[in-house]
Amino acid sequence: MCVMFVCAVGASKPAYANDSMLDNFDYAHPAFKNSMPFATVHLVIQVSQDDPALWNLALNNAQNVQDYFGAQKVQVVVVAYGPGLKMLIAGSPVAERLVTLDQEGVEFDACHVTMLGIERATGHLPVLVPSAVIVPGGIVRIMQLESHGFEYIKP
To answer: What is the pTM of this model?
Structure first.
């Protein structure tokens, strides 16, 4: 359900190399990067701090839940916003772990509001790890998932 887009030079929308839900976000109908048709457990993990130790804890939580229930029986979405978005910026200390967990079905959502704040502060949009999915807002995404039965944790 995600749409990847890259805009042409001079276009009105910024160019994103990542999957994005910016054009098709529907609060009433959540979309996901990874289809998890057999998942009976649904978990959203909030990451909102610039702390690699907490990032690793969040990733440990995701891995432990998958290990307990089985990767095909649990849907895990990690939502990063505010200072926690640095977790999803290319070259972050946990970038390699993100690749591994992405391959195991964990979704990593990046807050577009935070990305625009970084752009205002630095003059450019952050370059995200390839597995990140851009969502309109981190808080709104968490609210959406909770309203659709996802359990919530913040390490």
So the answer is: 0.90
